Amino acid sequence: MNDDAPDLRARNRQATREAISHAALRLAIEQGPHGLALVRVHDIATAAGVSPRTYNNYFSSRAEAICAFQADQSTRAGQALRSRPAGEPLDQAVIAAVIELYTNPEPDRAGLRMIMSTPELEGEALKAFTMAEGPLAEAIAARTGTDPGRDLFPAVTAAAIAGAIRVAGRHWLEPGNPESFATTLRRALTCVFPAAPPQDPQDR
Amino acid sequence: MNDDAPDLRARNRQATREAISHAALRLAIEQGPHGLALVRVHDIATAAGVSPRTYNNYFSSRAEAICAFQADQSTRAGQALRSRPAGEPLDQAVIAAVIELYTNPEPDRAGLRMIMSTPELEGEALKAFTMAEGPLAEAIAARTGTDPGRDLFPAVTAAAIAGAIRVAGRHWLEPGNPESFATTLRRALTCVFPAAPPQDPQDR
DNA sequence: CCACAACTTGCGTGTCACGCACCTAGTGCG
DNA sequence: CGCACTAGGTGCGTGACACGCAAGTTGTGG
User: Fold this and answer.
1) How confident is the model at residue A187, as a pLDDT?
2) Pair B129, B122: CB distance under 8 Å
3) Footprint of strand D on the protein (CB under 7 A)
4) Smallest Cα–Cα separation from A77: which of A154, A115, A131, A157?
5) No. of H helices and E strands in chain A?
6) Can you give the pLDDT at residue B200?
7) Which of A59, B5, B8, B74 lies 20 to 30 angstroms, CA to CA, from B163?
8) Is the shortest CB-to-strand distance from B53 to strand C under 7 Å?
9) Given this model, what pLDDT does residue B196 score?
10) What are the contacts of A168-174 at 24+ separation with CB within 8 A?
11) Given B123, B160, B194, which is nearest A163 (Cβ)?
12) Interface check A26 vs B, CB under 8 A
């Protein structure tokens, strides 16, 4: 929690990391899904105010740089679930945590659309979502009192949640969709928890 | 179904595709998860009996070549579900179809472990699994009579199934696990369908 | 104030993806 | 039965990239 100001170096490092990934995403959006190959490493580095060599001290591929925000966000999924009140039933805790995590701030439609509609970026985004599953599974196991080493429920549920978020994103991106992302997210996650196992389903 | 002998050309093409991907996987296994960078394109092409230039007429990256089998298998998921009897309840049909698809032939532990434990390959395998979701979602929609354009259930369920398969694979690979893959698969998929809507659960 | 560590940068190297042009082999028609 | 056609394989050249290495620069702690 106290990684706000541990060091001036660490802050500079985080700042350049964000500068690079932000520049990468911006340039990618400018070129559109079909012009990703035109986004040169040199351009990203220049736009971020660093040398090309420094760029790949932070990222080893364009896709990794462009999707860094998604990746960072995903790693917070487990923490988001843990921060829900202990007594809350699993389904409600998950839905609340995910909505809190993915609508703060409201996601950028252009950026998401860019990532979801470009094969190479989609692969990297997939990796990002998958990285969330480990911590998420641990948080679920902690909440349900199951052993993640033997019981498959936590890991499978975490994977299902990550999948639901992906599906929600894809559906939300479809042209002419007036729903808020939170609404779509809630609809998708409700499919994962049709009826909470040992709880009374008051949701839906 | 009738793509067995449509053409001599097509058969040759499929044969070289399989030769390349098979050679790529074999060489990757030989080098182990930490030596993937030592598997040169030239080696793969030579082992497959084609020129390096031909290799990337078929695949544009090593990971794609190595995971081609997984990708091909994934694309058959929708078809596997559709080939189940129409009256069978969704959960039983899915479990039967997936087990049929992923245990025929019995998967190669070394190959799976190679793919799941190498970050770059894992990303490609993730893409392969995700490619299965579209057809799977359509098959689920057809079986449940829902509209995949409006209802999120088919897509979310397909994603959950793909995630369960991944989790099952990871768990099955853990050292000292005596279970058959079919058993692990069934356990994982049962987490996705905790209680079949109006059916009696005879599995588990 | 100084020695040390972290970080950035320029350079060189090996690898790779891919466009282009040419060649080989399978195909269908007269 | 042979010939034009076409899909696919191959060699070559080019542009870009990842990464190791060795400085130079900036923050840190004694």
Assistant:
1) 96
2) no
3) A 7-9, 12, 40-42, 53, 56, 60-62; B 9-10, 12-13, 16, 50-51, 53-54, 57-58
4) A131
5) 11, 0
6) 38
7) A59
8) yes
9) 47
10) A168/B152, A169/A107, A169/A112, A169/A116, A170/A116, A170/B155, A171/B152, A171/B155, A172/A112, A173/A109, A173/A112, A173/A113, A173/A116
11) B160
12) no
**A51-84 per-position pLDDT tens digit:** 999 999 999 999 999 999 999 999 999 999 999 9
**What's the predicted TM-score (pTM) here?**
0.90
Summary mean pLDDT of chain B:
90
Dihedral of CA atoms B10, B6, B84, B127 in degrees, nearest 10, equals 20
Q: How far is B64 from chain A (nearest CA, A)?
A: 11
* Relative orientation angle of helices B8-31 and B68-75, to the nearest 10 degrees: 130
- Distance, in angstroms, between A48 CA and closest chain B CA? 26
Per-residue tokens: A66: 């462009």
Alpha carbons within 13 A on the beta-carbon side of B166: 33
Q: Which of residues 130-159 of B touch A (CB under 8 A)?
A: 130, 133, 152-153, 155-159
- Comparing alpha-carbon positions, the chain B residue that sits nearest to A184 is B152
Mutant choice from B156, B173, B181 vs A, greatest count of A C-beta within 10 A: B156
Instruction: Determine the 3-state secondary structure of B42 from DSSP.
Output: helix
Q: What residues contact residue B10 under an 8 Å CB cut-off, 6+ apart? A: B3
Query: Chain B, 105-124: which have a CB under 8 Å from a chain A CB?
Result: 119, 122-124
Render the burial of B27-47: b for 16+ CB within 10 Å, e for the rest: bbbeeebeebeebebebbbeb
DSSP 3-state assignment of B15?
A: helix
| Tally of CB atoms within 10 A around B157 | 29
pLDDT category, B105, cuts 50, 70, 90?
confident
